[in-house]
Design brief:
It is built from 3 helices and 5 strands; from the N terminus they run H-H-E-E-E-H-E-E. The N and C termini lie far apart (about 120 Å).
Length: about 200
């Protein structure tokens, strides 16, 4: 009987040992599996960090380019915001003559008028008269507005051509006062101003 009682205890001991061994094996297996998963997660995180680092470098380079462009635009604005030291009269009227011929207009008068002076600004005025169709005149005036010169049309009068009674004629005469601006001679900067 004593032997019969020992057998179930040995079976229980063996079963308990098997359960403990199975638990240890399971723990080791889960630990190794977790290490594999953790290793994969570490690699993924390392890749994400590298990607974020590259993105940061790209953003910094883009920021530096934008700062450079901003500084360039600030310099251009400062230079273009200043009137020239001397109005480029001959060059401007060569450009006007070319634009007039491109718009099929005939220049009939170009003569200087009395200049006007304002604080820091000199306005040189010229009478300018062209003849052509109304649409060509409008194209010419638009082209004047698109030039980069410190100049403006300060007066404009458009009349019918030589024969206003003829409805078939679309000839118009445009009398303009062209004003060219420059820094007044008292306020000219030492570097000569912009264009």
């Amino acid at each position: 009987m004593h032997r019969a009682a020992r057998l179930p205890l040995q079976i229980i001991d063996v079963a308990g040992g098997c359960v403990v061994a199975a638990c240890i094996c399971g723990f080791v297996w889960l630990t190794l599996l977790r290490e594999d998963r953790a290793g994969g997660e570490v690699q993924t995180l390392a890749h994400l960090i590298d990607q974020a680092d590259q993105d940061t470098r790209s953003l910094r380079a883009a920021r530096d380019r934008q700062h450079g462009l901003l500084e360039k635009r600030r310099v251009e604005l400062a230079e273009s915001g200043q009137p020239p030291a001397h109005a480029p009269v001959e060059e401007y009227f060569r450009v006007l003559s070319t634009m007039a011929s491109q718009h099929r207009l005939r220049v009939v008068r170009h003569s200087p008028l009395a200049p006007k002076e304002y604080p820091g600004l000199l306005e040189q005025r010229y009478a300018y008269e062209v003849v052509g169709s109304f649409l060509d005149l409008m194209g010419f005036l638009h082209a004047i507005e698109q030039t980069d010169y410190w100049a403006d049309v300060s007066y404009l009068k458009v009349d019918r051509g030589a024969n206003p009674a003829d409805p078939l004629t679309d000839q118009r005469v445009a009398a303009l006062t062209i004003s060219l601006f420059a820094a007044s001679h008292d306020d000219v900067p030492a570097d000569g101003g912009g264009t």
